[in-house]
Structure formats: C-alpha cells, structure tokens
Design a protein that fits this description.
Adenine-n6-DNA-methyltransferase TaqI, Chain A, domain 2; alpha+beta; restriction system; 5-stranded mixed sheet; 402 residues; elongated; 4-stranded antiparallel sheet; DNA binding
Amino acid sequence: MTWATIPLAKAADLESGFGFPREHQGEFNQSVPFFRVSDMNLAGNEVYMANHSNTVSRATLAALHARTFPAGTVIFPKIGAAIGTEKKRILTKPSTYDNNVMGAVPKDGVAPKFLYYWFLRINLTEYANASHVPSIRKSVMEEIPFPLPAPSEQRRIVEILDQADALRGRAREADVKAARILPALFLKMFGDPTANPMGWPTADFFGVFDDVTAGHTKVQARDFQPSGAVPIVDQGQNYVAGYTDDKSIAHKDPLPVIVFGDHTRTFKYVDFPFALGADGVRVLSAKDGIDPLFAYWHCRLRELPSAGYSRHFKYLKEKRFMRPAANRQSDFARAASETTKLTAAIGTATEKVEKLFTLLLQRAFSGQLTAKWRETHMQELLAEMQEQALLLNLPTSAKGAK
C-alpha cells in the first residue's frame, strides 16, 4: 500500500491574514487573539500559540473585515526576512493574525499536528519569490505535494514524532541550563562587571586589552568554503562562519584571543588557529596579568548600548574593567574550562538529537517510519482511506492503494 500524494490545497485551506492598524493594537483583555509574527517568539509559543500580545473584540474584528481561524491552523511568516526563520506554529483557539502571516487550515481527514510536522520538513525560503522583499504566494503553497496517509496512520506518526520532539525539548532545556552556569559563576565570584559591587581595582580598555586586528588578511564572505584547512571566525552568530584552505592568512598573534563583532556586539573566545572574516571584526588580546577566559566573560557580561548596525567598538573602549587578583582570575578560568567541556558535551548530544529528529521526519513522510505498522492494519486503513477520500472530495483512485 502506498499513500496518495495530493496538492496541499486539497489537504488544507491556505489563508492570508489581515491588516492590523496601530490604533487597534495593545489591547490584552478582548476575546480574540490577534497574532503577529513577533508573537511566535514569545516564551511558551514554541509549538502552540498559547500566549499573545494583542487581542481584539468581535466588533473590532468585523470593523477590520477580518475573521478568525480555527484551532489547529498552522501559521508561518509569509513576508520579509522572517520567512528565513522557518517558524511554524499551531493555533490553540479561534484566533486571527496579521497580513505578514499565512495559515494552513487542515481539512477533515487531516490531523493538525500531522500537518504541522509536515510543515517542519519544508523550507519556506524555497517557496518565496526572489524580490527585494521576499514573500510567499498562496498559489505557490497550494501546489506543494502533500502525502496523505489514513487518519489512524497520521495519528501513529504524530505519536512517534511527539515522543521524539519531547526528547528535543529536554535536550534544549539542558542546553539552556548549561548556558547559565558560567554567567552565574562569574557574578558570584566577581559581581556585576558594570556596577563592580565588590570594589575590585579597575583599568581602562587599554590597560586590559591590546587591539591586534591590524596586519591580518580578512576573508570576504563570498570566499567562505563549507570545509577547509582553516576555520573562519567573523562577527556572525555562528562560532565558525566557514573555512579557507589558505593557511598563510591564519591569525599570527598568540592564542587565545577574543573576537569582537563591531556591528553585532558578539564576543567569541578563540583558542584555535583561525582566519578572520571581513568587515566589522576586532581581535583583542588580554594583557599580562589578565586571564583571557576571565576577560572574555567580563566582556560578555558587560553592558554595551545598541546602536543598531553602527559600530560599537568605540563604546567598548570607553568602559572600565575589573582587575581582580591573578589567582582569583585563574580559579575562575579553571572552573570555566571544565564547565565549557561539559556544556560542549551537552551541545553535541543536542545536535545528535536534532539530527535524529530530522531523520525521523524524513522517514515519517516517506512512509518508512510506519511501514510495518501499516502492514498489520491493512484492512482498517483501506476503510479509512475510502472515507478520507470522500471527506476531501478526492477520486477513490487517488488514494494510491495497491
């Protein structure tokens, strides 16, 4: 038995949202949640849209010529850079959303969570147009092929993927907890670096760091390779942005160093040979008497004002930095080194869990995950598929049963 493959439009209604004028925003106690893309980032909204920033009354909804969409609708960004975040979420109650969002309302015979997991497999960016401001058209989404197992097999797939997703959640939670350890240790040993409540001696920027950026060749982003002899470190969020095979441009100064993103305000502790990514990067070396790992965490916890995408090095140079006793710094550095090994191991485990989940998604929607289960429930599935075809107005030959 094989599954039918139908256009997404046969499995779900694709619905764009509505304009949400500013004068109607900011209400929290009305009856209808009005979601925006930013609400997908709220804590607790990682899968289900349980929390909201705006609500409207039924009267306001009518005045905006808007309507609600049912619980189980799968929503995602449809305009701009937000498409690239690949966020997909599920409505938990009748709600509406703005015109930067599109939703897929599952039809009878399609389980909402099954539809959600299917959406996790696709890359929205592949379906966006290539204009200056990318957007996703309803007509394009409607034509995406959608696999259609019988409802009981959908439920079985969801049950397995829910278990795997719960494991992902626990792994991510462990990551978050591990990431809190070193900031907490630093604050316990030295206090807030901005307020310096323990009264440590301080020095200006040039009493703590040497700027060793100059004199090194920087690799342009277009020349980054996916693999190579030398890792490239830039100001982006990823620790390693790419690779180069040109060993002659590796950073020449003694390691470790701290790489500062002049535009992004990111700090990276680098203790391995590397090449420097172009644009907006400063390389800092801790002076004698300053432990590099202590200096790195001092910088990470030091508040810097945001100037958007302007340069921030000037703000860093204006700061004063604590200079605790060398042995105190060394104690912290030893603890930080051991803790970093632990968090790296946790991070590796999390990556493995994510890869396993991706593999399960692939197997789930290719039919491999439930192949043996399907064999033992053949008669039940055939009957369900007949009923499902009627619900979705499909010709019975489209079921694909053999």
